[in-house]
Amino acid sequence: MGSTYAEGRLSHVLLDEIAEESPDLLYCIHPKFSNGHLTWHNITFQMLAKAVDLLAWWIDEKLTENDQRVLAYIGVNDLRYAAFVLACMKTGRATVDELVKGCTELSLQTWPIASLDDIFVSQLSRPYRATTPTTFHDMENDPAIIIHSSGTTGLPKPVVLTHGYLATLDRMQMLPVPRGRQSARLSLKYRGQLRFMHGPLFHFIGIVCICESIFFRTPFLLAPDRPLTTELFSQIMSTEPAPQWGLLTPYILEQLAASEEGRNALSKFSALNYGGAPLSQATGKKLSSLLRLQTLMGSSETGYTPTLLCEDPEDWDYMEWNPSFELHMDFVGDGLWELTFPRPSSIQYHAVFHSHPHLGLWRTGDLFRPHPTKPALWHYEGRGDDIIVLSNGEKLNPTHAEKLIQAHPLVKHAAIFGQDRFQTSLLIEPEWEYLTSEFDLDNLRDALGPVIDEANLLLPAYGIIFRSHVIFASREEPLSLSPKGTLRRREIARSYQAAFDALYEPHLAQLDHGTHWPKLHGSNMSDLERWVQKCIAIILKRETIGLEDDIFNAGIDSLQVVRLVQVLQDTAKSFMPSHSSTTWTNSMVYCSPTARKLASTIYAQIHGHGVTSDNSNPEIWSREDRMTFSTWQQARFLGSGGLTVALTGSTGELGSYILHSLLRDPSVTRVYCLNRSSDGATRQLASFQQKKLASFWLTETSRLQFWKATLDKDSLGLDTNSYEKIRNEVDIFIHNAWPVNFNQPLSSFEPQLVGLRQLLNLVESSQRQVDFHFISSISTVLGQPTSPDSVIFEELHRNTAALEQGYAESKAVAESLCAIFSKRTTSRIAIHRVGQLGGPSTPSAGMWNPRDWFPSLLRSSHTMKMIPNSLGPLRVDWLQIDIAANLITEIVQSRRDDQSHDLVIYHISNPRPTTWDTFVPQLAKACDAEIVSLEKWVLSLEERQSSLQSFNDDLSNTPALHLLPFFRMLADGQKFLNPTIDVSNTRKHSAALSKLGVVDGSVMNVWLQQLKGWIPGLAI
Q1: Could you give the CA distance from residue 689 to residue 686 in angstroms, rounded to a whole number?
Q2: Given 61, 149, 378, 452, which is the most exposed site by the fewest CB atoms within 10 A?
Q3: Nearest-CA neighbor of 207 among 435, 11, 421, 427?
């Protein structure tokens, strides 16, 4: 019988026990590439145990019994690492993973290891019986594996991980946590559930994964040993079974979260840990709205530092120490505290005193700042030493390189920076008195080139300094020094923040001083292909590179990718300087790894409209989008070339979904977007990304154009050419621009009514057969008295049928104008009365607009811990907003084929209404709220308003206060009945409407999942 985790367990012994008890239990899902095709292979505990035995016998064959030399393993990042490490433990020999990292001159005896297939497919059944002790008591202090420290506390150095050290990982499952709380360490929460493992297995986190998977019987999916592009990651997350959780570096998360496809793939995780470096606030907020995100604390020397899962998901970047684990926070000044570990009476949880058994105190050097209002939470602020942690988690010590540069006679002080950046930069304070008048800063940079090159030899490859990233201190602001003469890095960084920020937004002319970049003489495809080839050749220091050569097979590394991205981005911007949204990212290069593909992408940017994103590469589009795009490419050359549409209000909530639906329609060959702002393209991209719509539709076609328009001005505020272009080309107008404000009177909507009249005049003056679609509101007909059997038909009603509010009244007046115009024109006029729109139809595609009444009610109910049992006269005939947009565009197309020129009104409403009480139990559970009457709920809201001065956060946590008159109206109107909304016309022109189902619990659950990130603590 094996030992328990309380006593201490040996991972290699436990492996054999599990292999015997549960031979088919999954240990790892392993990748394999064959002819460019990715396949997956299951590795069971029995297969791993046999592989370990095979390698143990092989090690004994290479070394005599008394030869206890330490073994080093260097190889491809595959499961042979695990087998070799465990085999060394079994033979009683320690192993060093990646011993020679950074070393070039060592005399070593080497042996090639068998292939992965030979080790794991072999049917060898001869078990290895260790001659060394196999009890934990005997082996607790023996070395199990030797790894290198990350270099956080100085130069990288070997760290001996004993079996006792590894046992602390195992024993963490018995460390008490406060009642009602959970460990932040997902390996404890998700025991037995598939883990995603990305990163080198020779690092601390790789060894942890190897051992935790045995201790907790938790399988992992190992990522392929190649760059984790968005496309590859999406492919991984689409496998069955898909990983449920993982531990990733911030650098990888930043890359993946930059694109819609990456965020969609990440959202398939239930939860994620991250560590190793800070994560940007922007990325963290995005991810925490999609899944449970929590940072972790750990290091090679100390193992895990136990923390609790923060109660508020918005505290994803804070740490709360487990009170059962002994540690101490030492105040070091400037509001910062250092994490230290005093030696406890028992070291069963403290790995650091297994790796450093002679110490009585371990000072981590890690600095933290307490949360401003939650004193138990701590935010990581950096290190107390000079170590630089790049954004990809790589660490370097710049001291020796700085001293070398500082020894130059023209240099007074030198400081290397790069914290949270992808690459380093150098700040130099010149010896001004030694500089003659012939020296300007460019000359000085060239003069210091040789010493910078020499200093780069002291830095790791990922930390070398490009001359483009060298800046100089001013005479007026010398570098700040401590009394001991050392650099005050934080103070210097603050003083030169603007200069550093500008440095990381390079211009091609300054990209790399000393490098002669080729000039781009034209923007046709052949010019771009030749230019990209030359740039890649310069970066790789090669004579040439083929158009179809894979640049990663040619040897480009991650830092060279950064240089290439900078060149490509600067070139794109030089053609379109006004388009700030023209961006390149590392992921785009990984997804277009040839000169031809890169040239094709930049060609699309230059000849498009300057809007781009990570989604711009066709290889990472969804299957449906690729096929639709291909159809559009061919359809535009058929017949007369398709339809031209003008859309107002495209950047709004419904407008964005309408635009997305139009762009996915192959028959639409051009769309003119008329918006109030001058940066419509940028706003549209932001709106698409926020709603998780496929933003490549904004970039991959030349059919989209944005114009700033003032609809109530002559010619819509457009120049003559633009106005004439719209008048002569547009086939369909969709007028969706209307401010949603229920508190303003009718008079305040006068500019909108004038704008509608101007648009109708434009339609009248067109020589084309123009269809005009006005997006109205169902509120234009909800103010009239009703009876239980009342039906509101799709026809024009009296203006007084509108609700008594300026918004509804203005829409009613607008409908009357459309009706009058329809009698005076041959154009087809349509009115779309839009009912209540909910969030989109999928959990990962945006969310219900938080400013709307339902999200406001839900968040307020969560705060007040009570939810109304009724909505008064309202019924639930709601539509998902993306489905509503599809209905509208379907009607627009169907109406185009209608021979009638009569005014037609459509109700955009769910034809299968239900009642609020259907969802009350579900919502009450999600909000942890008591079910009360609507009157009581509104009274509670009114009480909060009356005491608002003592509720400073009520406006954010109780947003229903903004809509109190609306909720009071519902409470006062409970005795009235809601009429049936007729949808006959809509059904006639939209086949999709008949397929719509009732809003049920599953639909509501989707909306709740979307709102979870906005409502902290929502139980869903």
Answers
A1: 5
A2: 61
A3: 11
Is residue 792 situated within a structural domain?
no
Whether 828 shows a pLDDT value over 60: the answer reads yes
Provide the residue type at 515 as one letter: T
Are 330 and 412 found together in one domain?
no
User: What is the domain-level CATH number for residue 562?
Assistant: 1.10.1200.10
pTM, rounded to two decimals: 0.48
Q: By three-state DSSP, how is residue 461 classified?
A: helix
Domain total for the chain? 5
Same-domain status, 464 and 406:
yes
Whether residue 189 sits in one domain with residue 91? yes
Is 770 inside a domain boundary?
Answer: no
Which residue do the tokens 């051009």 mark? 670
Query: Is residue 223 domain-shared with residue 336, that is, in the same domain?
Result: yes
Residues in the chain: 1020
Residue 838 lies in a domain: no
Phi, psi of 301 (to 5 degrees): -75, -35
Question: C-alpha distances in angstroms, 1006 versus 291, 847, 910?
Answer: 14, 9, 17
How many angstroms separate the CA atoms of 631 and 24, rounded? 47
318: β partners: 379
DSSP 467: G
d(CA 792, CA 781): 7
Which of 253, 244, 191, 490 lies closest to 393 in space, CA to CA? 253
What SS3 state is found at 914?
Answer: strand
Residues 476 and 421 in one domain: yes
Give the model confidence (pLDDT) of 736-771 as tens digits. 999 988 778 899 999 999 999 999 999 999 888 899
Which residues, listed in sequence order, are joined to residue 894 by a DSSP beta bridge?
none
Question: What are the tens digits of pLDDT across the range 702-723?
Answer: 578 888 899 999 999 998 888 9
Q: Residue 482 belongs to what domain range?
A: 388-505
Residues 375 and 392 in one domain: no
Local structure of 971: helix, strand or coil: helix
CB atoms within 10 A of CB 938: 21
Indicate if the alpha-carbon torsion angle 595, 601, 607, 611 is positive or negative: negative
**Residues 671, 564 share a domain:** no
The model's pLDDT over 194-235, given as tens digits with 9 standing for 90+, comes to: 999 998 898 888 999 999 999 999 999 999 988 899 999 999
The tokens of 928 are what?
């942890």
283 with 399, same domain: the answer is no
